[in-house]
Amino acid sequence: MASSDLCVLVGGGPSLRSFDWSLLDNHFVIAINKAYQVLPNAQMIYFTDNDYMQREWDAMFKHGGMMVRGAINPQTEPQNPRLMYYRLITQLGFVTQPGCLAHGNNSGYAALNLAGGHLGFKKIALLGFDLKWDGKNSHWHGGHDRTDTDDSMKRWAVHYDYLAAPLEAIGCKVWNVNPDSGIKCFEQVPLSWMEEHRG
Residue 90's Cα: distance from chain center in Å? Predict the structure, then answer.
């Protein structure tokens, strides 16, 4: 159970390769894609990609968190009582229409729209939102079948600019916990920031 008012979104960037996951124990955690595998206490798992869902379906439902998927046509997707769908209605922007999200071509973007626009969090930390290679890796974990090119990640990083002003306007503060992240529109802080905000 979260005891702080900070929501932590955990992505797959290689900056988390040696991260101490216990630092997140007292926060509300949204694990994006395969991050659930190292976060057994995450309250929520968010994912978008169909290929990810097909690979991880059985393993995900052994996790205790709520499952949330963004999809263009939720009514045509596999159903499960523990799986909640949000309809992806636009690429860019900040969507607050009930049951809908903007996707930004990136699961992290949609999860941030979810946390700030629907779950009501006013303090959000982004972990592993690198959107750049560390020289040879695009993710801290294995099993990422699709190869995200450097050019693609640079485009996705700029998409986050469309979330920054709307989140600020509703009083939501976002910290990007990686000073070397490709996303530049939020305050960037070092990984040690999470030690200072253990909760």
Answer: 17
